[in-house]
Amino acid sequence: ATPTSIMVGTGKGAENGILIKGADSLELAHKLQTIVLDKTGTLTQGKPTVTDFITVEGTANNNELKLLQLAASIERNSEHPIAEAVVQYAQSQAVDLTVVQNFQAIAGSGVQGNVSNKLVQVGTRRWMSELGIDTQALKSRWDRLEYLGKTVIWIAVDGKVQGIMAISDALKPSSARVVQTLQKLGLEVVMLTGDNQRTAEIIAREVGIKRVLAEVRPDQKAATVEQLQAEEKVVAMVGDGINDAPALAQADVGIAIGTGTDIAIAASDITLISGDLQGIVTAIQLSRATIRNIR
Ligand code: ADP
Ligand code: MG
């Protein structure tokens, strides 16, 4: 490509809220075959809220607000969007947070810590199983919530499940339309998420994505992109989180959500400033036009 056509393409991108870092990505974007989309913060708004809080009945710990205090006190130490939702929910219930010792975040699983000699663990059902914690008591409630496309987190105190919380994160208004447009352009659209399989599939169906790679640990996201590239595909990754940065760097074209983390933006080739996914389509069209001008 000539420097002039690249400059024109880059300029038009900027006019449309799309920052294109190098000439390479503009030249590559028209060759894309697979678009990998992160779920939280990319397809969804990334502003999760707690919609349900259910506690186990008949236990000594059946004091809802006390349990909420334990969970939110732990979550206050986490930077995960889910953690923010839990803390906000606790604040809305006028619950004061308390001191936590030995806080630990287990990527892709959850968080834990000690509150006044109690071990509090908050995270996925899979993690609870790995810890040998029985989840039977709230299984039917959990089932119903996940079928609604919500992310359910489990709260255990001293190794016993005491409650669950359902967290909902609305789709961006343009997500379904953009997925459909990309598919019409002949691209395969894939969802990549650390969230559980069932929730991921329900959200995927809502936006028309057929291929879902869920429960992917943060350190496995880049390897997953690599596997897609090994299918002889030119792959773009679109993401917003710290967890997405290695995958953004691994992809042939890394596309960051401008409202996401600085680390994701730094690792990417293209940034969608407002976070509007329509920018993916615009970038591909710009690339096609740029290449046409060159030939
Ligand atoms: P993603 O950002 O794609 O949702 P993560 O790997 O960050 O994926 O998280 C995967 C899952 O681990 C989340 O859906 C959630 O269930 C659980 N999890 C992660 N962090 C926390 C946290 N701070 N509190 C509760 N659950 C968490
Ligand atoms: Mg995300």
Automatic annotation (TrEMBL):
It is found in: Cell membrane. The chain holds residues 400 to 694 of 755 of the full protein. Belongs to the cation transport ATPase (P-type) (TC 3.A.3) family. Type IB subfamily. This is Probable copper-transporting ATPase PacS. May play a role in the osmotic adaptation.
